[in-house]
Specification:
The protein is of the alpha+beta class and 113 residues long. It has one domain: Orthogonal Bundle (Arc Repressor Mutant, subunit A). The protein is built from 5 helices and 3 strands, in the order ααβααββα. It has a 3-stranded antiparallel sheet. Helix 2 packs across helix 5. The longest helix is centred in the C-terminal third of the chain and has 22 residues. The protein is globular. 17% of the residues are buried. The mean pLDDT is 90.
Length: 113
């Protein structure tokens, strides 16, 4: 089975995270589960990678964090949630445009033999 190299996908971790957060605010564990589910288990983001991305994106103003008193199941456990800012939406759209161009260029070099 072919695995996705972390070097290949690294530049698009933020894009994947933002695509989930654009739909609704969420928290780390749930985002990692969604990435795994959406990729059909072809990509499993490491916890350190995920939280590094949160820190970087928050510093850049793409997301903001907030603490919720209850999780979605109604438990009293406080959780840090993240939501996308307007700058994050703009960044996400630019990364999507970049992906279209990147895919177009790389596909010119891919030949199945």
């Amino acid at each position: 089975m072919v695995e996705i190299s972390s070097d290949v996908i690294r530049g698009y971790n933020d894009t994947m995270i933002l695509s989930i957060l654009i739909k609704e605010p969420s928290y780390g564990y749930e985002i990692s589960k969604q990435i795994r589910r959406i990729s059909d288990d072809k990509y499993i983001i490491k916890e350190t990678t995920l939280y590094s991305a949160f820190t970087r994106m928050e510093k850049n103003g793409y997301i903001e964090s907030f603490v919720a008193d209850k999780d979605p199941e109604g438990n009293g456990k406080k959780r840090t949630y993240y939501r996308v800012t307007d700058a994050g939406r703009e960044f996400y759209n630019s990364k999507c445009d970049e992906w279209v161009l990147t895919k177009e260029v790389i596909e010119r070099f891919i030949e199945k033999k």
